[in-house]
Amino acid sequence: MSTMRAAVLTTPKCFDVREVPLPPIGPEDVLVRVQRTGICGTDIHIFNGHYAVDRLPLIPGHEFCGTIAERGANVRHLAVGTRVVVDINIGCGTCFWCRRNEVLNCAEVTQVGIGRDGAFADYVAVPARLAIPVEADIADEVLVLTEPVACVVRAARKARATFGQSVFIFGAGPIGNLHVQMMRLVGAAPIIVADLSAERCRMALEAGADAAVSDPALVKQTVLGMTGGRGADLVIESVGNRKLYEQAFDLTRRGGHVAFFGITSPGETVPIDILRTVLEEGSLKGSVAGMGEDVHDALTLLSHGRFRTDDFTKASYPLERIQEAFATLSERPQHLKTQIAIAT
Ligand SMILES: NC(=O)c1ccc[n+]([C@@H]2O[C@H](COP(=O)([O-])OP(=O)(O)OC[C@H]3O[C@@H](n4cnc5c(N)ncnc54)[C@H](O)[C@@H]3O)[C@@H](O)[C@H]2O)c1
Ligand SMILES: [Zn+2]
Ligand SMILES: [Zn+2]
């Protein structure tokens, strides 16, 4: 066998599902037989031509699970047939940042399905050191959530979220919903979320939010009302809107923390009151993707059923219908995740 099926994004908004050569593997790589791949917000940006356009033609897909089909000559620790998920962030592995698990700061970083071909295909090649064996009895539909869950694990870690903290989250999209669940796990209280969509608010409440606000005019009074008039200990922006970043500082208590998470266009800025930040001892920190220990932790939490995944597992399309899966996303807000079933 020398070819496989792959969904190649040839130009923005246009997938071509066709036979392509199997990806070659180096001595330190493995070839993964893909079982299932989730569609992520980043894939939607790539599909629409707003991100990684210079990479086209590209096989996207980075939220996947599968089994080892072939090992590179130097790979000893993974047997053929082992079920795996993959840390998609490929750094050099040896630089200052890679050693600190800040792989996205590595000068050589690339990501599977974003900077190089990914998993909307029968097979994907990845460095063996980034393939994580899955021992738990966990459904593929849940396992493919490892990557997005790793993102909220990292966000919680970087924000040093802990029990008893009040949290406000802008956005109850797929990732906002996972932030809500992650904040439940760390014991945050209360957890307040805002989303323009009443449906997304309803799902956030089901996921464990204490309050969900769909009317922007009610956000401030709700946050203040539920935090003793102080504002939240932690505010997470999970929309990617400059105006919301600006508002985030007003919804944070004195000495609180703003988590920079939602992705804006390059170069967007917010004014920050320097003196106020100094005197109040305010803080902010970014967090990007999930890598290293974040991925392991996400897998552990999912393996032990710590995330409610019903709203993430109901929409599934075969690879041949990937174009339709992408084209209909905006009509299906009730599906927090759409998945592509690759191996049948
Ligand atoms: N930093 C990271 O590691 C990381 C990882 C994954 C995603 N992201 C980013 O996080 C954000 C959230 O991801 P997602 O997949 O849930 O995105 P999404 O676009 O699917 O969902 C965003 C949600 O925000 C809501 N929204 C839009 N405008 C709003 C407003 N003014 N007020 C309140 N809610 C509003 C929408 O109704 C939607 O439900 C995106 O910007 C994404 O790019 C960051
Ligand atoms: Zn993703
Ligand atoms: Zn590096």
From TrEMBL:
Pfam families: ADH_N, ADH_zinc_N. The keyword Metal-binding applies. Its cofactor is Zn(2+). Residues 7-336 form the Enoyl reductase (ER) domain. The keyword Oxidoreductase applies. Transmembrane segments: none annotated. It comes from the Bacteria. PROSITE patterns: ADH_ZINC. This is 2-desacetyl-2-hydroxyethyl bacteriochlorophyllide A dehydrogenase. It comes from Mesorhizobium tianshanense.
